Amino acid sequence: MCYVKVEYYWRNRTREEGSLCSGSTETGKFVTMKVLANRSFGVIWRGLVLGVLILCLTAISWIVFEALTEVNLPLPSTFGNFDRVVKMLGEAPSSARFSFAVVGDTRGNGTFETIMEHLWEEPLAFLVLLGDCTQRPLPADHNYFRMKIVTELATSYPTFYVAGDHDIRPGCFTQEQFEQFYGPTQFYFRYGGSLFIFLRVLPRKYCGVIVKSDLQDNDLFFKLVKEKIIKSNSRNSDYAFFDDDIADENQLRERLRRAGITDMEPILAVWRRSDNSMEETLTFLERVLQAERQEAKRVFVFQHVPPPVTREFSFDDIKQPQKLIEIFDRFKVNYVIAGDYHGYVRLSKVDTNYIVSAGGGAELRKNKYGAFFHALVITVNQDEVTEKILLVPHKTNIENVLEYLIIARLWPWVEQRRFLAGLVLAVMLFSTGGMVWELRRYWKAEQVT
């Protein structure tokens, strides 16, 4: 009779068992190898799980440390719409030759960084971000964007930031919060004989935002949703948008009357507030042009949403578009440069060149024309203005993806659910310790045998 020696590593002992065969040593070897292979597979599996746990804990610890130390760092002195940033431009004669760049809709995870690597090599006077630089109009997303600006994307020249609908929204990240972070949403300056005006122009649907706290009555909020006077993405949402078919206050009053709502004033107050946003923009634009246009050789206007000057492209609706275009025509504005429409568009109408440059990293429009990632470098000479398109490939940086997920998504969740987050971390640490203990026992048993 033959015997097979079977080793039990996890129990740290051996014993002799009878063979399943009679007189065949080959069978005994086969059984031994099979048992060893099974135990080796278990060890490899535990080792892999342990490696993944340690990797996750290390990555989370590193990025949380980064979030705590870098998110709240002050913006570079060259970034923002503050007076101190504008003053960094200094003085330039009207005959001076200078260049500036525009990049729109930079929310992405690598493409904008590639664009900036090229722009750092350009002798620019300043850079303009045309809005939608954050994925969502939330404080956490702005914290991530600020961290990227501070640690990776700072420039030696002034960088100005036009507000987009992914950057500000009532009930999420307000205009007041944006201006506290980055400076005014509407401002202007003169440089090299040209006038540069920055406007706050947002899609119509995002101007007409109504927040639950505006009404102080959740039942009224849900009734407005039910009557389709406002539109909400979900029942749990804290804000909604006025229906696109409501063109003015009189139509809103009629819809409210038909819905049986008698106390209209809180709702009308929100409507008037949304109307005032565009009125403020138009008043600001006209006032600046009346005061400065005559002495300016050229006028450049920057805004997020382009005005509807063509039917060839489906731009977002804005309030009072015809009045805005009329001001551009009346004061012979030379350039209106916008973002929002993910791609590139250029057209001329009357005396104005309209340019859409929104290929900074966000997903491109499904359009065979102008669908490419890019930045635009504009050079102003005494007698001409030239435009150069900087083409870049799409790029996804895994480190950026992880940083965004942890800083903008995971960290806010942790702050709101600290007990649960601590429990999850404790389970991960306990599991890691258990795996280390099991592997330690295995290695000891290996040494004994």
Tell me briefly what this model is.
The protein is of the alpha/beta class and 449 residues long.
What brief labels describe this structure?
single chain; 449 residues; alpha/beta; Purple Acid Phosphatase, chain A, domain 2; 2 domains; 6-stranded mixed β-sheet; 5-stranded mixed β-sheet
How many angstroms does the end-to-end distance come to? 24 Å
Q: Fill in the CATH topology of the largest domain.
A: Purple Acid Phosphatase, chain A, domain 2
Percentage of residues in DSSP E strands: 15-25%
CATH architecture of the largest domain: 4-Layer Sandwich
The biggest beta sheet reads: 6 strands, mixed
Radius of gyration: 31 Å
CATH homologous superfamily placement of the largest domain: Metallo-dependent phosphatases
When the domains are counted, the total is 2
Q: State the share of residues found in helices, binned by percent.
A: 40-55%
Order of helices and strands: EEHHEHEHEHEEHEHHEEHHEHEEEEEHH
User: What is the average of the pLDDT values?
Assistant: 81
Number of helices: 13
CATH class bucket of the largest domain: Alpha Beta
By secondary-structure content and strand pairing, the structural class works out as alpha/beta
Numbering strands along the chain, what is their spatial order in the largest sheet?
A: 6-7-11-12-14-13
